[in-house]
Automatic annotation (TrEMBL):
Keyword terms, alphabetized: Cell membrane, Membrane, Transmembrane, Transmembrane helix
Species: Trinickia fusca
Record bears the keyword Nucleotide-binding: no
Transmembrane segments: 48-66, 87-111, 123-145, 157-183, 297-316, 336-356, 368-385, 391-409
Keyword Glycoprotein in record: no
Signal peptide feature range: none
Compartments, record wording: Cell membrane
One Pfam family of this chain: Polysacc_synt_3
Protein name as annotated: PST family polysaccharide export protein
Family (UniProt): Belongs to the polysaccharide synthase family.
InterPro entries: Poly_Biosynth_Transport
Amino acid sequence: MRSVRFAASSMRAGLSPSAATWVLLQQVAVRGLVAVKFLAIGRILGPIAIGRVSVALLAVAIAEALSDTGLAQAVIQGREMPTRSELGAVWTTLLARGVFVALLLVALAPLMASQFHLDGGLLLLQLAALLPLMRGIASPTYFVVQRERRFQHIAAVEIAAALADCSVGITLALTGAGAYSVLIGMTLGEALKSTLTWVTMRPRPPLALRWSGIGHYIGFSRWIWASSVVNLVLNQFDKIVVGKMLGPAQLGAYQMSSRLAQMLLADAAIAMSQYLFPTFAAHHRNDARHAARLFKLYLAIAAAGLVVIVFVLRLIAEPLFALVLGPQWMPAVPLFRIFVVNMALGALIAVLVAYLRARGDARTAAQASIMQVVVLFSVVPPAMHFHGVTGIAWCMTAGLGTAMLWMLLRTVKAR
């Protein structure tokens, strides 16, 4: 009877709204749908179309990183629950940011099209401006739900949005919409997610423009903004170089090999960080030593698993590309073998960043990113000269390794 009661208790705990089970379910469903969408559309459209979409998404990533407020992380990490008035000020700020980024993208679309050799791609770039606008409309109560670790609720919203994105994107690609199918699907997915944050999440912030009351978040969020700007350089610099110097076809191969490696490795850790950040923060508020022990356990498990996965993926790279994407993508295999190493390092960094931010040390993550930028700028020019696009990929590995070692050193010294 005791064993039966224990099993029932364990099952209830595993399915409680704050259980990691929901984060895992969200990870499998959302990343699976994203993988199906990009692999299917990549096979249908080929490298050039994927390269064109990559330029549009690159523009969005640049604008959003430069305008990152860090308010989401500040709400989750803060000791006090935000009031409705404070949530209203957060929403006003994020809405203004979304409108600003959207207008900026529309204005800069002609310049981006000319710089990245996108003949006839002006409308594609302008369509991408809808993404930050849809994200800015979302209710900031989403961050409160994350703070309270209501992962079941988050999983339902994220899976619904991903399903809409995937189904619409593939349907449009099959009907001949080309590169537009990716952006239209993403926009509808973001619109559904924003709608669900207002319809299903409480408390709702007041629908009135408020510009004050969140000054206490600035000290923490400024380091998040600094990290976002630096991460912009780290995550997009290589794509800018490839797209500018080599054109959409090479960018498409580079992006797809990177994206496939990310789907198979880094996405799991990034999604898990959605669970780890609020979990580490909650434990740190109560017992810093227990939070540190929990961090070491998760880091050790992640490192052991990643070593095995990297070895297997490098071994099966060629048949994997032939089966999933077709012969037109085979030139991207060498890049994929490099990117699986990069994404494994990125997965470990995601665990480190979740812990550092949870204990209020966003500065160390920003410093690590700056070190990564220094390494990247130092080695990319000679590496590209002698080894081309694969040299750039290996430069990313060197930068990620440097950042990870610095964060590990800081977590050890802090104890």
